[in-house]
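Incident review: delayed structure delivery

Summary: a single-chain prediction request sat in the queue longer than the usual turnaround. Root cause was a stuck worker, restarted by the on-call engineer. No data loss occurred. The affected request and its eventual output are reproduced below so the record is complete for anyone auditing the incident later.

Affected input:
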Amino acid sequence: MAEAVPNPKTGIRVLLVDDHQVVRRGLRTFLEVQDDIEVVGEAGDGAEGVERAEELRPDVVLMDVKMPGMDGIEALRKLRELGNPAKVLIVTSFTEQRTVIPALRAGASGYVYKDVDPDALAGAIRSVHAGHVLLQPEVAVALLSQEDTNGGTGRGGTLTDREREVLALIADGRSNREIARALVLSEKTVKTHVSNILMKLDLADRTQAALWAVRHGLTG
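Output delivered after worker restart:
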């Protein structure tokens, strides 16, 4: 009996969600030449994107914002409700920048503009897959302004010194692996610290934690 040939692709599994077929085709054409990125599927709207993400369990979802029916932000919220662990990278235009803040609050790991350089897009996918948060300075400022208006939490005093160190590194865009290396800890210990930080500060995710750290001067 002939032996099965293993699939050489063991890289980052990406799902493309965009209502324009020509855009999906262009993205697929570029991403499939990347040695460490595999496009595992496509979807033409948010509802189909949620369905495909549940079926395929990709590592990263490249999600358009404006789509007929269920838009990208609603689809992102649905994925988080379902507990889908995929990192979501929002695709938007500069004129739609106001949609970025709701997307980040819904759990997006970051965003890229539609005219992004192809190499920068691949870099963004690798970055969010590694656990980084992608924020442009102007969006971070807008988010922080909203936190000030809404009255952010002031429970930083409940954090231990080690948790404050971890939080500062989260704000610096470090992944758990990089934090573990920097602080000479195991990744499991870092994950525990991150969970404790989110619980103590009543935050939903690493993006909010990074913004909290910036707002309270914990960055370098």
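Verification: The beta strands are 12-17, 37-43, 60-64, 87-92, 110-113.
Action items: add queue-age alerting; document worker restart procedure.
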